[in-house]
Structure to design on (412 residues):
């Protein structure tokens, strides 16, 4: 009689650290859909890039459109990127022409509102309180 | 061409004598329960004589854009004409279960001047040094324009007039109603964000008792800055003991911040002057 291969399901906080490179060439809609899919599975997503304010607004509207009985929404935080207007202009122009996103230095955290209870913000840092 | 020259001359005269009557679209944005509808009602009641929407302590009470058109406000020797848009509260999460508890609907502490006799209102106007033609609604408007509710209560007391407070009621929603409210609230957030392209000036309402560095506030101010829309930050609820409007000033030093109590009508003159000065 063979041994039963028991897989123990671990309960706990699930955090996905995703490289900005994973989204290079992806449209904003696809990128946000990917992030929100993970968040709806109760994962906290951490990206090593920042979203700009317009992208944040799009993240909020996409979230609102996905809210239902099981998904209450998100908490998120983006650390501001270092401003370099010349690089920013080139990046924006590239995105406009190709319709594809480029990675920007910074940090973004997105998680389910049902798990993240509080984010204490500071211009240069943030701390997250979560509850499982 | 002649029309263009005429427009320029008119604009020049307007700028010289402050008689510009350009109508601005003023959006009132902010997180839920920051006092957007209370302020909209206060402005609209003072200058149009009618409220904009229902006030309650339930988040997302306002779920569609409420409008008050052609509101003429006098401030700092100028006349501002504006279309006022009371926006649904911006949020990143909405839980329908939150709507299934008791909430207070209606003004909680506001004075109900409509319940007073016209002769009492005229006496109060006279004591305040305000001229009135005897029309009850106009007298109420003039009283509200010239002072705040605390002062009015004091004047009424000195004249032996008892002013009743507006009645509020408790309300609780069923699960079915709560789900519907949540659905409407999510649509309201989307609508408010899309409307950012259609406003000339924005009042960003913040609750002075809360941490101003919320992601919604940061995102809202950032979007407005990126779009080049003039911002006036309103540090509301200064009538509460725990209010710290200085925290808001420290968090957003790049923008004008006006500390007010929309509920009590405190410091609205300064807000009108800020709209006249910074509004597009």
């Amino acid at each position: 009689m063979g041994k039963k291969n028991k897989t123990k399901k671990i309960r706990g906080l699930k955090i996905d650290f995703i490289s900005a490179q994973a989204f290079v060439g992806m449209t904003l809609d696809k990128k946000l859909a990917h992030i929100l899919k993970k968040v709806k599975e109760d994962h906290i997503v951490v990206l090593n890039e920042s979203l700009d304010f317009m992208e944040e607004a799009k993240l909020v509207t996409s979230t609102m459109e996905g809210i239902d009985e099981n998904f209450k929404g998100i908490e998120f935080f983006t650390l501001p990127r270092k401003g370099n207007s010349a690089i920013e202009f080139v990046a924006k122009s590239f995105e406009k022409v190709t319709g594809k996103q480029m990675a920007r230095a910074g940090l973004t955290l997105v998680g389910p509102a049902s798990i993240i209870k509080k984010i204490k913000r500071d211009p240069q840092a943030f701390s997250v309180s979560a509850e499982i | 061409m002649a029309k263009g020259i005429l427009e320029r001359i008119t604009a020049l005269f307007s700028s010289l004598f402050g008689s510009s009557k350009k109508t601005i679209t003023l959006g009132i944005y902010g997180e839920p329960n920051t006092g957007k509808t209370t302020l909209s009602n206060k402005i609209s009641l003072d200058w149009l004589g009618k409220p904009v929407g229902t006030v309650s302590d339930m988040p997302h009470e306002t779920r569609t854009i409420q409008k008050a058109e052609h509101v003429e406000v006098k401030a700092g020797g100028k006349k501002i004409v504006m279309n006022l848009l009371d926006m649904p509260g911006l949020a990143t999460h909405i839980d329908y279960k939150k709507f299934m508890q008791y909430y207070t609907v209606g003004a909680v502490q506001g004075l109900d001047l409509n319940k007073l006799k016209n002769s009492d209102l005229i006496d109060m106007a006279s004591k305040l040094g305000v001229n009135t033609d005897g029309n009850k609604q106009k007298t109420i408007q003039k009283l509200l324009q010239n002072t705040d509710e605390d002062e009015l209560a004091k004047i009424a007391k000195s004249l032996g007039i008892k002013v009743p407070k507006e009645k509020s009621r408790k309300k609780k929603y069923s699960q079915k109603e709560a789900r519907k409210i949540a659905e409407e609230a999510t649509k309201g957030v989307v609508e408010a964000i899309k409307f950012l392209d259609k406003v000339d000036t924005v009042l960003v309402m913040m609750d002075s008792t809360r941490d101003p560095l919320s992601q919604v506030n940061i995102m809202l101010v950032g979007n407005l800055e990126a779009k080049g829309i003039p911002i006036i930050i309103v540090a509301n609820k200064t009538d509460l003991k725990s209010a710290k409007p200085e925290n808001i000033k420290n968090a957003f030093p790049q923008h004008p911040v006006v500390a007010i109590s929309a509920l009590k009508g405190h410091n609205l003159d300064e807000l009108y002057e800020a709209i006249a000065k910074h509004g597009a």
Observations:
- Chain B is about 40% helix and 20% strand.
- The CA atoms of residues 99 and 178 of chain B lie 5 Å apart.
